[in-house]
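Margin note: ligand = S-adenosylmethionine.
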Amino acid sequence: MSAALSPDADAALARAGEPPAAAGPADEGGFGVYVHWPFCRAKCPYCDFNSHVRATPPDEAAFVAALKREMAHMRALSGPRRAQTVFFGGGTPSLMAPATVGAILDAIDAAWPLTGDAEITLEANPTSVEAERFSGYRAAGVNRVSLGVQALHDDALQALGRMHSVDEALAAVALARAAFERVSFDLIYARPGQRPEQWAAELKRALGEGCEHVSLYQLTIEEGTAFAKLHGAGRLVLPDDGLARELWDVTQEITAAAGLPAYEVSNHARPGAEARHNLVYWRYGTYAGIGPGAHGRLQVAGRRRALATERSPDRWLARVAEAGHGLVGDDALAPEEEGEEMLLMGLRLAEGVDLSRLARLSGRPLDGGRIAELEEEGLVARAGDRLRVTPEGFPVLNAVIAALAG
Ligand SMILES: C[S@@+](CC[C@H](N)C(=O)[O-])C[C@H]1O[C@@H](n2cnc3c(N)ncnc32)[C@H](O)[C@@H]1O
Ligand code: SF4
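Resulting structure:
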């Protein structure tokens, strides 16, 4: 980006004739900006993210212009805020030219001045073509990348429909570590036929790369994907519950021993290296979501609004041209809905949720009897005002949340 990221966001806001963003309930959990880039080179058979494959590359300049217009609309809704984090997610944002990323960051900085230490993450696929652009992204202002490595076995990568080999992915990790202060990568485990001892070796090798953060996702079968068809036909068999639990336990043990314990169900980091953008979601902060199929949560006139944009890139472009934004969903959340969302997000974190903030948002405290029952079963623990899920509770997190929210 041309101008350096705002070293002093308050001063930037003052220059713009605006007061600094008020510290208040809306600031709890922080504020970030999510940008969705909806294109991929090929569709992976397990993935149900909003991603589209095009025969010809999209017109990046047209998207930048539309993203800027949509940003102006979201800025009008959010009021003046400083952005502590930006996340380019996809799809495959690493298909964008670095200049495109720079132009989007400039526009974000103009709308919501970036704090001097803002975390700016870009999701990248670890192919050699994309790794060539890393230094360009760094020069554009990106300071963290998240690479979709997915597996460290070539046959597994092939089965997952990936367009890179293990060697290529590890070369991309090395290039990323040279270009960025902060690097994370994703692996998918609990794959068909995977044994705990194989996964343990693969995970140890991955942690040996020395990154500060890893996201470890159990393979899930998402409706409408190629894997869902295979699974439905009995041609793709996932580990049963017992084996999945063993794989989970191996994951927790090995990451903790390596100094990257889980701070969220699927996310592991050295203390202090947590993904601050995702923490905005999990700590129930507010965020603007820009681009096709992006979600946002903004505090508008004292109410939290749930915002969602059109998923189809072409229809999104047309809507923005017509209305100045691509919103297809804009709902003011009722207090109990806010409470449910905060609980759903916060219990994913090892640190848990703040019960008094939860009661303030939802208008009523959580049922003390239910908490006591779950505590008795060893699934949650309470310390003062915080409620957190225990290591025994995490493998059955959905049931714990349902019991508390019900
Ligand atoms: C938006 S996608 C990744 C971005 C990038 N396009 C890539 O593929 O590297 C985010 C991550 O979600 C994970 N993921 C997507 N679908 C999944 C599924 N069905 N089961 C488990 N993990 C999944 C993958 O690890 C993936 O890297
Ligand atoms: S996993 Fe990544 S590359 Fe594959 S389809 Fe999904 S978003 Fe695209």
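Confidence is low (pLDDT under 50) at residues 1-23.
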